[in-house]
Amino acid sequence: MRQLGTLYFFCGKMGAGKTTKSKQLAKEKHAVLLSEDEWLESLYPNEIRSFEDYIKFSAQLKPLVKMHVQNILSVGTDVVMDFPANTQKLRKWFLDMASEVNANHQLIFLNLNNEQCLRQVAQRRIEQPQRAAFDTEAMFIHVTKFFEAPEASEGLNILELVQHSVIEPEK
């Protein structure tokens, strides 16, 4: 029987470091890295001007991405997704994606507080000026209203990172 790939995905507030960690993990695991920002930018250039636009286009992308990821996992290749898993509904999408093809999964929860995230968002504005319109404290506050921390009851394999330390989940 062929070994399936593992699906890795991230939960964390805006600015928690999901993109940075996803790139590191993909390199460590020799995995395929898929970035929602890159897909959205390529498919819908200059069309995402608000959080509502993001929600709309992200939803349009999901069926294609799901099928693509399942095909990659099915041939035994690990996939690291730089797509936010910041609500129970989104995490269920990731879990279903893996379980429908009997692949393993790992949710990496970057558990940083608001102050840490806002510092990193401010730093990102400096390093990536093209993101300055979205990387604001107001957008952080808006987006954070929707954030739901993962819970054991969701049936996920959760690895929680707090300020770059690791907390193993309770069994």
Automatic annotation (TrEMBL):
Q: Which SUPFAM superfamilies match?
A: P-loop containing nucleoside triphosphate hydrolases (SSF52540)
State whether keyword Nucleotide-binding applies: yes
Tell me the domain of life.
Bacteria
**Keyword Nucleotide-binding found:** yes
InterPro entries named in the record:
P-loop_NTPase
Q: Molecular function terms in GO for this entry? A: ATP binding
- UniProt entry keywords in alphabetical sequence: ATP-binding, Nucleotide-binding
Q: Which Gene3D superfamilies match?
A: P-loop containing nucleotide triphosphate hydrolases (3.40.50.300)
Descriptive protein name: ATP-binding protein
Q: Which organism is it from?
A: Ureibacillus aquaedulcis
